[in-house]
Specification:
This protein is α+β, with helices and mostly antiparallel strands. It has helices at about 45-50, 60-70, 75-90, 195-200, 200-220, 230-240; strands at about 10-20, 30-40, 95-105, 110, 115-120, 130-135, 140-155, 180-190, 245-255, 260, 280, 285-295. Bound molecules: uric acid.
């Protein structure tokens, strides 16, 4: 005999676009999101006994996402996700948890002849602003906010030396290298006890996203990096310092390698060390460096 150990279900990849038209100024503002909502609760019999009476159809879940987007502000995604998730556990007595994931795509207002355009936007990068909102009945709301797909490169100001050397080591030490990564950063908020608690902190969500983005870029640019590890820790440390409601900040950074090419075979061409100008960008393999930084009062799980 088997038993259902865990189950959740819902609608994924619900694409939603919302426009706000300011009638007075004629300025329009747009938001494009991809939403996933997964539900948990007393739904076991739908799996074990073909009992569909406990199923809120995934089609209805999709409809609810559209209606909530129409009736409520979709910014900030943290507040929208909390309202949406709470709806399911309040509306259906047998649903006890809702897991909402929102990916907000990047539409940046165009500047035309030096002026912000009222209704035209450009997608300048695949970067997204994301939230994972977990609403659990009786336990409150957990929110994790993140940035993904922010690709950066610096052509100097990065070193890597002093690392462990043994019979497996071939990498040369360097005091000047290219550093490039696709930033994935996330910050975990302290638990919220209700939608009202989330709403009361609305302004902090945009501020934290802006701070995380600015700090990531500034530290990346200005730090004379000893390693990806040391630089990412500085970023996380600074973000934690800006917002007391954050419990942890985490980064996942691939090290997108650029290899020097020895061109000495062609008429003695110098292209290594201080003469390196033409490099070969690598797709794989790549380093992948992760960390989660908490406050010193929290015990580290290493
Ligand atoms: O910043 C780095 N961290 C590493 O752990 C590492 N390992 C490596 O080969 N190059 C680098 N660079």
């Amino acid at each position: 005999m088997s038993t259902l150990a865990a189950a959740r279900y819902g609608k994924d990849n619900v694409r939603v676009y919302k426009v706000h038209r300011d009638e007075k100024t004629g300025i329009q503002t747009v938001v494009e999101m991809t939403v996933c909502v997964l539900l948990e609760g007393d739904i076991e019999t739908s799996y074990t006994r073909a009992d569909n009476s406990v199923i809120v159809a995934t089609d209805s879940i999709k409809n609810t996402i559209y209606i909530t987007a129409k009736q409520q502000p979709v910014t900030t995604p943290e507040v929208f996700g909390s309202i949406l998730g709470s709806h399911f556990i309040e509306k259906y007595s047998h649903i006890h948890a809702a897991h909402v994931n929102i990916v907000t795509h990047r539409w940046v207002r165009m500047t035309i002849d030096g002026k912000p355009h009222p209704h035209s936007f450009v997608k300048d990068s695949p970067e997204t602003r994301n939230v994972q909102v977990d609403v659990v009945e009786g336990k409150g709301i957990d929110i994790n906010s993140s940035i993904k797909g922010l690709t950066v490169l610096k052509s100097t100001g990065s070193q890597f030396w002093g690392f462990l050397r043994d019979e497996f080591t071939t990498l040369k030490e360097t005091w000047d290298r290219i550093l490039s990564t696709d930033v994935a950063a996330n910050w975990q908020w302290r638990p919220f006890n209700s939608v009202a608690d989330v709403r009361a902190n609305t302004a902090k969500f945009d501020n934290a996203w802006q701070a995380a983005r600015n700090i990531t870029l500034k530290v990346f640019a200005e730090d004379n990096s000893a390693s990806v590890q040391a630089t990412m820790y500085k970023m996380a440390d600074q973000i934690l310092a800006t917002e007391p409601l954050l419990d942890t900040v985490a980064y996942e950074l691939p090290n997108n390698h650029y290899f020097e090419i020895d061109l000495s075979w062609h008429k003695g061409t110098k292209n290594t060390g201080k003469d390196a100008e033409v490099y070969a960008p690598q797709s794989n393999p790549n380093g992948l460096i992760k960390c989660t930084v908490g406050r010193s009062s929290q015990k580290a799980k290493l």
